[in-house]
Structures are given as C-alpha cells and as structure tokens.
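Issue: ligand-bound run for tryptophan - logging full I/O for the record.

Environment: standard queue, default settings, no custom constraints.

Inputs:
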Amino acid sequence: MTEPALAATAADVSSQRPRVLSGMQPTDALHLGNYLGALRQWVARQDEQDALFCVVDLHALTIPEAVDPAELRHRSRAVAALYFACGLDPERNVVFLQSHVPEHAECSWILTCVTPLGWLYRMTQFKSKAEGRESVGAGLLTYPVLQAADILLYDADEVPVGEDQVQHVELTRDIATRFNRLFGDTFVLPRAVIPGAGARIMGLDDPTEKMSKSVMIERPGHAIGLLDRPEVLKKTIMSAVTDSQREFRFEHASPGVRNLLTILHALSEEPLESIGARFEGRGYGDLKKAVLEAVLERVTPIREHYEALMRDPAELDRILGRGAEAARERAAATLARVKAAVGVGI
Ligand code: AMP
Ligand code: TRP
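Outputs:
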C-alpha cells in the first residue's frame, strides 16, 4: 500500500524541479568565462533540476569558413568531455550532441517562419559576428532561431548562461509568445539564469573586451583556457593588463584589476570586500599570484579528468548516444505538438 504513495511523491518532486536546458558551441577549447558564466552553475545545481545540456554542433556551421570537418568532429567530443570533466554527471543530466536530434533543425524551420526579420537584425551577437565580413551566411542571422528551438523543444523553464546570451533567451520568449498567440498555447516561456559572480569575464590582455573563444586563438594572453598547461596559465595571468599604479587600491580598481578580483571572487567565493581588504596597498604581483593559484587549483583536476575521458572516445560516444536517445524522446513529443498546432505532418 505504501509503494504507490511513495511513487506519487517522487513524481511530484521531480515535476516541481525546474526544467533546464543549455549548450555551448564546439568551436574551440573552452575558457574560464565559459566555466564561470555557464558550466559551473550547470554543475552546482544538478541535483535540483531536470536538466539537458547539448553541444550545439549545428550552430558551429554558421561561420562555414572556420569549419574543418575533422576538427569539428573532434571538438564536439572534446566539449562533451569537458562538460563531464567539469563535473556534469551523465546519470543525472541528459547530455547530447544537437545534430543527433534532428527535431532541432525541423522545429527551427517552423520557428523561422514566425520570426520577423527585424528581431534577428537587432541581435548584438549577429551584428558583431557579421561586422567586417564580405559575405554572411543566412545561418548567422537565423542562429538564434535554432537556439530557440533548442530551448523550446524541451519545455525549459530556465536557461543558465553568461550575460551575453540573455538577449537570445529573451528573443526565444518573444518567438514562443508570438507562436502561442498565432497557433494556441504550445510552448513554455523560458528565462535566462545568470550567475551572481562571473557572468561576464573580460579578456586579460584587454579588459574592455569580453573573454571570447574566437579571440582566444588569435591572441595568446587573452583568455584563461581550461586546458592550458600551468606554464601557459602563469604567463597569461602574470602578464594580465592592470594599470600604471603600483599598488592595489580597492576604491580605485581599474577594469583589468576588477576583472582579476572578479575571477578570484568567483573561484573562491570569498566576498569582494574581503579580498579587497586583504590586498589593499600590496603590489599587483601578489593579486596575480593569488589568481594563478586559484585557477590552477580549479583547472588542474578538470584537465586531468578531460585527458582521461578523451583516451576512451568509444565510451564517450556511448554516453552521448544514450543522451541523444533520451533527448529525442522528449523533443519528438514537443515537435508533434508543434506540427499539429500549425497543421503539418498529418
Ligand atoms: P560560447 O563561448 O559563446 O559558446 O558561450 C558558451 C557559454 O559561456 C554561454 O552561456 C556564454 O554566455 C558563456 N560565456 C562565454 N563567454 C563568457 C565570458 N567572457 N564570461 C562569462 N560567460 C561567458
Ligand atoms: N548561443 C549560445 C552561445 O553562443 C550557444 C547555444 C546554442 C545555447 N543553443 C543554446 C545556449 C541553447 C543556451 C541554450 O553561447
């Protein structure tokens, strides 16, 4: 007699957990901004949520000049391995490659048809990625519609991302709202969840610019790579741009110094004011050494775990295959709802 009651309780609890979806592009190795802005919160909350995380390999095609097929295949596995190396548990989360679930592309087409062009031209990521390019593929413009499909197919309530993705999640809400108005209630409206500290990590060589994957390859010293060797990390962090003052003054911290403080704060969870008090009047070298130590402590086990996982690509593929199966089951149910709502697929 007690068994059914217990089962009902467990089901109630799981249905109360927020449904979460997020993803990253497999463009290059990940950096500390990806970790602090997104991955860390995915891992920290994995017991409280019903979550899916994908490697968005179809999104990586939006700049086709930058795609080398063999490299893309490698990076897709590598980014999945990094998810796991950072602590994401494939038993508690559904982890998969976007291209393994064809419903994403199909749903994306239907959403493209309800998305006004003006909404897409307004996206700052489109503007910055299109800037200076002679020719831009249509996929770069419709990129956020595919992202909306990623999110809406799983009825996600929450999308944990860094600050730069908030605009895309808001666009997803707008697309869902418009679809629901045109075709009846079909989609859940998601919201972006950004971390309290680390939502926007800046470049170490230029603290006015966001730490980014594309700059990371061109400019050594720009980013703290999660897979960088200790010597490289030391060089990057010790040569981070600060300012011309010799000593640290919390009240007058320049953008470069503030970025270092943010990194230390996000990694150690020590309050900013207390870090400030500890370094007041000391040289910047001391602050940088503390950042280096905190970074090494965090990334060394991640790199070691990553290397171990990459030694067994067949096992990685098995895990991703199971993830794709679980994701497809859910995506197919939503897509059936969407197709019925618009009148295709009879
Ligand atoms: P991307 O590197 O654009 O694929 O981003 C993957 C995830 O990392 C997204 O949730 C971004 O918002 C987040 N992210 C990327 N760069 C940064 C950064 N510099 N600071 C904080 N979060 C970031
Ligand atoms: N556009 C995101 C980025 O550049 C990646 C992404 C694709 C994503 N689909 C997503 C993030 C769905 C969250 C949810 O970081």
